[in-house]
Amino acid sequence: IINLNNGGCSPATRVAQQAMGRYLELQNMAPVYYMWRQLDPGVENVRRMIAEDFGCSPEEIAITRNASESLEICQYGLDLKRGDEIVTTNQDYPRMITTWKQREAREGVVLKQVTFDVPPPSMDYLVSRIEQAITPRTRVIMVSHITNRTGQIFPVRPICELGRARGIEVIVDGAHSYAQFPFKQEELGCDYFGTSLHKWLLAPIGTGFLYVKKEKIPNLWPLMAAPETQKEDIRKFEQIGTHPAANRLAIAEAMVFHHSIGVERKAARLRYLRKRWTDRLSQLPGVRTLTPTDPKQACGIGLLQVDGIEPGKLVGDMWNDRRILTTPIITEGEYAGIRVTPNIYSTLEELDQFCDYVEEKVRARG
User: N or C: which end of the chain has fewer CB within 10 A?
Assistant: First the structure.
């Protein structure tokens, strides 16, 4: 199998898998002792490691199961009234859009989804599109740091400044940005940031984190009830009942592996891989990439459009014929293509096989 859908989920590093196996074996010897008394306290070390890497206080980091859980804590945890407006884009993750639509149906809040050209003419254009959607009723802006659909990097800092100047909460979906390219929390300036760690950090499946600015913690409700004594404690967002310790602790090994490579080198490799296949396939007739070529606007994710071939069919044929994994991306009435997301373990030979197949399909199309 050639996995070019690492944006969906990446394999954990071998060292993380091995660590998780050791922790899993230990916790099953006597769970109430080894899991709760010996292993669970170790999550504080993981919290410190994430905080140091992200550039914030450990008291602003909650360990979660994925980006969806992290973001839904914010989406459901903010007090909103009927008529309050939420500004997001039509390229945000479907689960997050569904969450806002549920609040819209139940509580009467108003969801406004901004559209924009793909690819956009500039980063300033993206900021202006968000700004144009803001009204006196806007209470929340939610934006993806990198969209899962095209790989477009958003100018988060100026969008956060827009929100802060108007007293608007800003939630950043960092599912695809964290550990893909270098940045710190202070460079974003957001109130909330949620991510998965089983994508670009290569941590065990079912790991993520939520950043909440310290002063925002008391007024953000947890997704599951927590005692009043935890009102100002970031750990209130981790109250989900009995949960495994093994995958959470193995985040540490994934982080060490990540640092051993270096996020700058990692980002450079991912950009190189994307450029390699996009440069080659963009030369074909009726083939274009909908991801910007500017490295400030994209990293490892790319969206490929092939005229005359339906994305779902191309993805299906590629899997059936060559066992190459990609995923179709379709936005009705706007654009459609296949998303290609190699990771640092992807080889040039694998990308060449992918390109060979697309070239064959284009020739057969005529």
Answer: C
CA distances from 203 to 10, 25, 53, 137, 178 (A): 8, 18, 15, 40, 12
175 and 34 part of one domain: yes
How high is the mean pLDDT of the chain? 97
Structure-token pair, residue 319: 């899997």
CATH code of the domain containing 97: 3.40.640.10
Both 230 and 272 in one domain: the answer is no
Band (181; pLDDT cuts 50, 70, 90): very high
DSSP 57: -
Q: What is the pLDDT of residues 87-140, one digit of tens each?
A: 999 999 999 999 999 999 999 999 999 999 999 999 999 999 999 999 999 999
Are 92 and 136 members of one domain?
A: yes
Tell me the backbone φ, ψ of residue 276, rounded to 5 degrees. Answer: -60, -50
So what's the pLDDT on residue 218?
A: 98
Confirm whether pTM is higher than 0.90: yes
Q: What is the dihedral of CA 288, 142, 8, 99, to 10 degrees?
A: -120
* Residue partners of 4: CB distance under 8 A and separation at least 6: 324, 325, 326, 340, 341, 342, 346, 350, 351, 354
Distance CA 130, CA 147 (A): 15
- Bridge-based pairing state of the strands 324-325 and 138-144: unpaired
* Predicted local confidence at residue 366, as pLDDT: 76
208-212/192-196 β-pairing: antiparallel
Give which of 95, 105, 202 is closest to 144, Cα–Cα.
95
